[in-house]
Design brief:
transaminase activity, aminotransferase, DegT/StrS_aminotransferase, 16 strands, four-stranded antiparallel sheet, Aspartate Aminotransferase, domain 1, pyridoxal phosphate, binds pyridoxal-5'-phosphate, LegC family aminotransferase
Length: 369
């Protein structure tokens, strides 16, 4: 089977995890926790980073840190993994769904303003599959309407927007280290900010707002959260981060190779990379247009028969039971992309032979039934 996206573990993971076990520093305090935060902040060029137990927790933490809560509205795409939408719900706010761009699959900044009401508190762009949203326009809207911007950069670690790292343009950025992401800790997440006050507040909230008094008793001035990552996993993350540049190089070169193979296939729209971004191509994704020989779902089945794993684009969240009643703009592009988009194998370990095999199947089926 050629998998969709599996981890690449080839560095110091064993060594650093063993170090935690040998020294007994396995829990949520330890040198690797600090090191992972420092190294990650350095990598994305953010002032500070706060490690969390997963990406969803990082997004929830970002919302709480910025004071988003009961009665507030947050503008978010419907074409996304459900995490950011659930996180909005966890804090008592309401998601408002905005459409996406047909070519980049991410939040259509031109459709945000019509959804803004006096209740709107934040905009939450989700850079799905790697391509960054139009952050200049989003930040400009946010400034004019006095809103916060939280970037869900879980799928775009390593992508760049106008020379800066994705996740560092908004007030807070969030990442995930789930097993299918560019780098993994098994499960984990990170929150970053260029505003030290936000980052410090996030750290405080994520550690049960614990204050250690002079007599060593714990005092908690607010309701906090245990969103900490254990040292064991942070050690794994430090090792993964050491190889991130290499991983990115492979991803980008594989996307280029895919493009070369699929560019001429009638009815297959290959992914774009706008001139103002660098796309990490976390999941190499194409759109199966009506002119293609078979429908997207049939293509998924036929790829599976050849031992190739693929996946449809995210099922839009606005039609799911918990969110059916939420406000939304026109979501035609979202629905269209859900029906036609497909993620193809994208692991760092993917070879050109694998890509040749996937491409041959797509080319062959494209000729019709
Ligand atoms: C777009 C998006 N947001 C948030 C998350 C949440 O990350 P986690 O699974 O680490 O909670 C994921 C992935 O899992 C994701 O794909």
């Amino acid at each position: 089977m050629i998998p969709l996206s599996i981890p690449e573990i080839r560095g110091n993971e064993w060594k650093y995890v063993k170090d935690c076990i040998d020294t007994g520093w396995v829990s949520s305090v330890g040198s690797y926790v600090d090191l992972f935060e420092i190294k990650f902040a350095e990598y994305v060029k953010a002032k500070k980073a706060v490690v969390t137990m997963n990406g969803t927790a990082a997004i929830q933490l970002a919302l709480v840190t910025l004071g988003v809560g009961e009665g507030d509205e947050v503008i978010v795409p419907s074409l996304t993994f459900i995490s950011p939408v659930n996180a909005i719900k966890y804090v008592g706010a309401t998601p408002v769904f905005v459409d996406v761009c047909r070519d980049t699959y991410v939040m259509d900044a031109e459709k945000i303003e019509e959804l803004i009401t006096p209740k709107t508190k934040a905009i939450l762009p989700v850079h799905i599959y790697g391509h960054p949203a139009d952050m200049d326009m989003i930040m400009d809207i946010a400034r004019r309407h006095n809103l916060f911007v939280i970037e869900d950069a879980t799928e775009a670690l390593g992508s760049e927007y106008k020379g800066g790292m994705v996740g560092t343009v908004g007030h807070i950025g969030c990442y995930s280290f789930n097993g299918n992401k560019l780098i993994t800790t098994g499960a984990g997440g990170m929150l970053v900010s260029n505003n030290e006050e936000y980052a410090d507040r996030a750290k405080f909230l994520s550690t049960q707002t614990k204050v250690v008094l002079e007599n060593k008793a714990f005092y908690h001035p607010e309701v906090g959260y245990n969103f900490r990552m254990p040292n064991l996993l942070a050690a794994f993350g430090v090792a993964q981060l050491e190889n991130i540049e290499e991983f990115l190089k492979v991803k980008r070169s594989n996307a280029k190779y895919y493009n070369k193979q699929l560019n001429e296939v009638k009815g297959i729209t290959i992914p774009v990379e706008k001139e103002w971004v660098k796309n990490c191509f976390w999941l190499y994704s194409v759109v199966v247009e009506d002119e293609y020989g078979i429908a997207r779902d049939e293509l998924i089945i036929r790829l599976k028969e050849k031992g190739i794993e693929s996946r449809p684009f995210f099922m839009p969240i606005h039609d799911m039971p918990p969110y059916k009643m939420c406000k939304r703009g026109n979501l035609d592009v979202t629905n269209d992309l859900y029906n036609k988009g497909i993620n193809l194998p994208s692991s760092v370990g993917l070879t050109h032979e694998d890509i040749n095999l996937v491409s041959e199947v797509i080319k062959e089926l494209g000729k019709g039934k």
